[in-house]
Structures are given as C-alpha cells and as structure tokens.
Design goal:
- By secondary structure, this protein is an all-alpha fold.
- The chain has 2 helices and no strands.
- The longest helix is centred in the middle third of the chain and has 35 residues.
- It comes from Streptomyces zhihengii.
- This is DUF3188 domain-containing protein.
Length: about 80
C-alpha cells in the first residue's frame, strides 16, 4: 500500500485540468488560447512542489517525535523481560 502523496495529486490534477481545457476547445465547447498550458501546468507544478515539501517536513517531524517518545521508555532489561541476555 502506498502512502498519500499530495504533491503528486496536485501535479496530476493540474495536467488533467490542462487536458480538459484543450479537449473542450477541440470539441468546440469553448476557445482556449494556446498559451494557457504554460501557467496552468507550471503553476500546478510549483504548488505540487510546495505541497510535497510541506508534507515531507510534517512526516519528518512526526518521525522525530515518535523516535524521541520511544527513547523515553524504560529499557528492556528493567521491564522484567528475561529474553535479552
């Protein structure tokens, strides 16, 4: 099972939005200027990069908190376990 990746989701949605805009233009539903792809895709990629780095920072902070909480517990030798020798 894969973890949630918000950056990839946003990048995919921006490319799908661009494709939908040009598909509507090709079908004759509306007119999409030729330069529309540049801001839509680049803006989506910048937003995806920001979301991905923010998500990475949150994951690292959670991992550090979890590791420091595990280090505060009593060592295995004093908890009554005789399996470690």
């Amino acid at each position: 099972m894969h973890g949630f990746r918000p950056g990839r989701l946003i990048a995919g949605l921006s490319v799908l939005t661009c494709a939908a805009l040009y598909a509507g233009d090709a079908a004759g539903a509306w007119h999409t200027p030729w330069f529309t792809a540049l801001p839509v895709v680049l803006g989506g990629l910048c937003l995806a990069g920001f979301a991905g780095s923010l998500h990475y920072g949150v994951r690292r902070r959670r991992a550090r908190r979890k590791a420091s909480a595990e280090n505060r517990s009593a060592p295995a030798s004093t908890s009554g376990s005789q399996a470690i020798r």
